User: Fold these one by one.
Assistant:
Number 1:
Amino acid sequence: MIGKSKILDYEYKWYDEIDGSTFYEKDLEQTILSKLPIVYPDYIGVPFSLTIQAGLESSRPDLAMVKKDYSEWYIIEVEMARHGWEGHVEKQVRVFSKGTYKKLHVAKYIAKKEKEYYSPTPTYFELDKLIKMIELHQPKVMVIANEPVKEWVPHIRKYKALLSVFQIYKGTNHFELYRIEGDTPFVFRDKSHCELLKGSSNILIVYTPTFVTEKHNEELEIIFNGKKTKWIKMDDGSKVNLILNGSTHYLQTEKKYILYLSEEGKYYLENA
């Protein structure tokens, strides 16, 4: 059956939203997992149905995804919008948000699922890094629904969880289009390693000169740990440095960093 909305592509072909009542949650889950490397290229997704315990309650999620630099990971619950928040969806979010994740057990499970799902492609995950990640970071919890469910938002926020939407559209040519909205991890378009110039606390060396597209002597804003910092681009034709245009940048001289550019055109700096 045809759903509520349509999409017109650049060739003026219409794609109809697939009605959520005509397909199973498992189909949506498998589609999301197969497209995850495109939607979230900085993450690796795996099937994840390990039982998570939170006090006397327990539940099993659908997917997990791990950032490639092991800085964060997500537990994902795929839900159809026709389901009510009370009961099933709320319990899932509550359990996954407050759950206990045994680092060795969960790390081995994620590594095993990656190997099974992506075989014969060589595995990416390193077990020791997965263990360290799980030890240091509680997973973020994300609910992915097949269409917007505004009434869930305040309830999900109470658990500091995320709500994303993944909609599927199909054309008469049998091709599919996908639409995402809501809470999603940052998808970075490009990145470059960088570090502060030795002996200086206000000059940032960018090791990929073509990465920063602003003109010479132009100002740009970089977000680091949620704080905005301003820099001036200095380009001599062979290398690019960024000069601090402010009183402080919160960086440490002995550390290396990675400068990211988001799809929205914003710069973000993270520890390498």
Number 2:
Amino acid sequence: MNHLRLIATIILLYIPGFAWAEDNPLASIAAEPPANPPSFAGQLKPAQLRSLGFTPLFSDGSLEQWDTQPWHVGHWTTNDSVLSYDGKAEHGKSKRADLWTKNSYGDCIVYVEWRLPSKPTLKPHPIVLYNGDFLMQEDNPKARYTRERMDAGDSGLYFRGSLKCQANIWSQVLGSGEINGYRTDRAMPPGVRRSCIPIKNADHPFGQWNAFLVTLVGNTMSVQLNGEVVIPSATLPDLPANGPIALQHHGDPVEFGQIWIKEIGKP
């Protein structure tokens, strides 16, 4: 199976109502109820991930794959199945609180379970327009219009060692999966910025588990959330060819479950 077909079949595995062809090698996974059914929409169990060629970055409480630093101690903590962050690690230019992988990755598919565990509170949220800009006040063009919305926190995933290439985890009405660094970059072409805005909000209610399936091939990124396509295809100019993956510090508590990766083009 070539790389493009592999990506297509994994993506189609999660599109509701897709009619599987008999010669599709993944059809049996979608057609037959798993022995250990998912706990929430979009979840994949370890046996399914292994059968698709994924390897774990976090699945058994070990941080062996991650570049932990002294200032992470006591803030990034694990048990057998959950990696928790309290949002309070020291963070700055020389000491980043984000948790990065030791290895770098290029073309890949990444599966990540996550949730925002904090009790939601009402906070002002900016309004994002179709072109990626924020809606600004007419009488004060430097001030954003906001609206009140329940908020349980903010985090995300960074890819290729780039702070711009991010799958956002947040409480915004846009929904998670937004590629924030490219969407907010006004130097980017309008089509690029628009493609970084989710086409739907597929987040589960605050406090519940969610699952990302992020595909990066060349400088193109797509994102599925809870089995729904939220970023069909975003072309990201000047994206590095490879780099580490990070779990983002944003000052809020966040929890991660299974984290698995399939490197495309490697045996």
Number 3:
Amino acid sequence: MKKSKSVTGHLNIAGESRRKLSLCFYLFFCYLVLTAQETGEISSNRFKFSGTIGLNSNGISRVPAFSLGKPAIMGFFSLRKNRFSFDPEVAYSTEGNPWFMNSCFRYRILAKKNFGVVVSANWSISHRYTEVIENGLTKTIAKAERYVVFEFVPTYKLSEKFSLGSAVFVGRGFDKGSLKQMHFISLVGNITKLRLSEKLYCSFFPQVFYLNLDGDTDSLFVSGVAGIGHKKFPLFLSTQMNQPMVTSISPNPGFSWNVGMTYTF
């Protein structure tokens, strides 16, 4: 018997409407990208618009313990004026299904030459898909989960190419069956634009992070991104790897990795 699939939404807003709304949001920011490229950078005494758009073989989130498990298109955008910025983030599978949408508001408490501190509040919607079998037919259950996350991110610049950063996230979920609490603490090294040749450079971003879910699930991970870029083209070819060292997450997330290409503007 041929199996059929259907999608069931768990929010009052229909799943198809959510998809159209998020797609319109994504297209709107693509329009801003094209506008910015045509008119140049927005005046420095007003707003500055920037961002990255990437395609990778396996979507890995900003908390690397979580991955999509399939290829993803991810966009990170920033509209900034002085110390304030609005930084939306969107991610889709290459099949067109939404993965997450973040609306992040950031404020730079300190912006010194070698030291900075950023705090932020992030309203996030994450989509989860589960396959179940009912009456011999496979159905895909789509669930949108809402979270709010507060972030504290200090960074210390050692030189033009080396810096150390940390990130502390405290999150809370609002929907039944979603995570109720999340605590994330990381230490990140930023080693950027090391010369490989006259035109090529490489960058490395090693990371160690601790993750606690709902107060009773602890994990320690090592993660990192390494890639190669071209000085005259805003493209960055990279790979990301993530390995739990100690974890009580069930099932064990295990080793994850991807390969991706990112365009920066």
Number 4:
Amino acid sequence: MQHSDMQNIGYRKDVGRGYQETWQNQIQANGAQGAAQRSSFDSSETDSPGLDGPLVECAIGNEQLDRWQQAMAGQEAQERVRFVLENLPGHHVITSSFGIQAAVMLHLVTQVRPDIPVLLIDTGYLFAETYRFVEELTARLGLNLHVFGPRISPAWLEATCGALWEQGADGVRRFNDIVKVEPARRALTSLGARTWLSGLRRQQASSRQETPLVTRRWGLLKVHPIIDWTNRDVHHYLKTHDLPYHPLWERGYVSVGDWPTSQPLVPGIAEEDTRFFGLARECGLHE
């Protein structure tokens, strides 16, 4: 598998010079062409598609969605992935936040299609452990990683808007729109995505209890191959394939996103309340 020359990747000035230099210095310190294989950081000047509305026109009707849903209902997760890649419209993309159980979907999907584009939104607020986890899994699984980020740096955002995550539910929503939703919509457009695979599971939150195997999101088809998996299923898969949890699992985190809006699971709170202070469960990508 071809290695990318990470030092030749272009960086937008609005990502922040400090971030650019830190990343490049880390790659050089690692020796190299970079731990991440076949990876890229978004350096395009793609126009933003905004926060609302379809990214593409979807001609797939409800009857077809129902047929796909029925076909996949009795399948094992890897069979579902294979079915999606063979039957649902391409271009196919998998999104990952490289969270606590991210290794499951990344391994599951790349066993079927090793070169599928893997989309990560680097909000600028990820934990240091997450960045190291990204490099570990990218190197181990040979991921075709594509990293997109917000148009402005964390320093710029906080200078102009303050700490949005401290400004109640509306502030949390605005924060997620800026650092997650807009970059994700821009990334999916840039990659030409038509079918988007995601690792959502119903057991993770009450807001996901009715989430189907396949649905529409922003005009794309969005598929959740492990939607009906339990925590036990996840643990069994990781152990069977000798795959790691995110490092913060050992410190009590059951869900990890941005450091200002993630906390460990402690007595008296539900798993879904460990994100966004219980003000929201979803970051805007899956609603």
